Fold this sequence. Notes:
This protein is mainly beta. Helices cover 11% and strands 31% of the residues.
Amino acid sequence: xxxxxLLGRCLLPALFCxxxxxxxISPVYISLGPNPFGSPSYAAYTSNAQAAVASGGGxxxxxxxxxxxxxxxxxxxxxxxxVDGNFANWRGYANPASPFNSELGTAAFFxxxxxxxxxxxxxxxxxxxxxxxxDLLVPDYFANSGSxxxxxxxxxxxxxxxxxxxxxxxxSSQMVNKIILTSFSAAFDASFYPDSGQLQLADAIADIxxxxxxxxxxxxxxxxxxxxxxxxxxxxxxxxxxTFGFIGLAFAGLAxxxxxxxxxx
Length: 265
């Protein structure tokens, strides 16, 4: 899933802290966020994510009360990674109450900060990623890899120059001192299923549940600087109401969506 949004608010001062010596890479920060395709809160979520990871991954707000919140986590249910652009839904529920009543689903996001040596020696184009999972039913069902070479700087691919200037547009080859990535996400797109509303979400959740509990592992690399950082998210089946349907993973394969804002394998 790919789209662009403007940065909605000022970032924390920590964005501009510059490394004095060797390049470094942060842990991978994992969170839930709104569907990047059409959810009205995505831009504000991105702003919070950028601020949070730039300052070390602290929480901003609560995902239970606001779709713009950034909360780090290590485990989710399958219902937490389902999107559908045809009707309001949030964490597996159709037509949720306010303030989630305009959102179009939730995805798992993986964010990272890469900091240079103070001499604008990094570029987005040299960043690569890998994604794997541990499910046993369809081994490595989520396998994916690629680079950001074909991407551009944006509100969720932010570069920071050595003098503190933000770079939110332009070619991925531009050299910067810091790169803050918050766009990488994984979700199942329920719109591929033939039902509608809650039944459509239930079909998608039922299919993901057949994978059982698994870990979703995402790594970011900067080979030029010799940097690598990985994060692991535990995904557990959602308890299924009697109305949940079953379509089959062969069909569900059409519905799995990965978002890297232009970073394609």
